[in-house]
Amino acid sequence: MERRGPARGRSGRDRPGGGWVPEAGHVTLVGDETALPAIARILSLLPAGARGSAHVAVAADDLGELPRPPGMALVRLGGHGALLPTLEALELPATDRFVWFAAEKRLAEAARKSLRDRGLGKAEMMAAGYWAAEGEV
């Protein structure tokens, strides 16, 4: 199925029901509580051989055990302040990688810059602002 719209051309595939899944040997997902439903969906749709990790800043009671391939680690982060340091500390392979980040708008912008500075191209990443802090548009 051909991808249409703003994400067209990104490394990934559409699944039935509109479930987009990154196609890469190594997948990294990072997000806050607003991203948890999307992270859970992506994890559930990844192929069995997927490798990588999901890092989510949520309360311990909110995370639970998410269905995911055995090669995908699930890490709970203590709060929003841990999102960028975690992203920046991750060791990423040089090729066959995809990083997905979703959180507050300014954090997403900083994540996008950080990933570009690390040499990731547009087809290797997505950083989305799911919400804006009070006073931001």
UniProtKB/TrEMBL annotation:
Pfam families: SIP. Signal peptide: none annotated. Residues 1-21 are annotated as: Disordered. Residues 26-132 form the SIP-like Rossmann fold domain. InterPro entries: FNR_nucleotide-bd, SIP_fam, SIP_rossman_dom. Residues 1-16 have a biased composition (Basic and acidic residues). This is Siderophore-interacting protein. It comes from Frigidibacter mobilis.
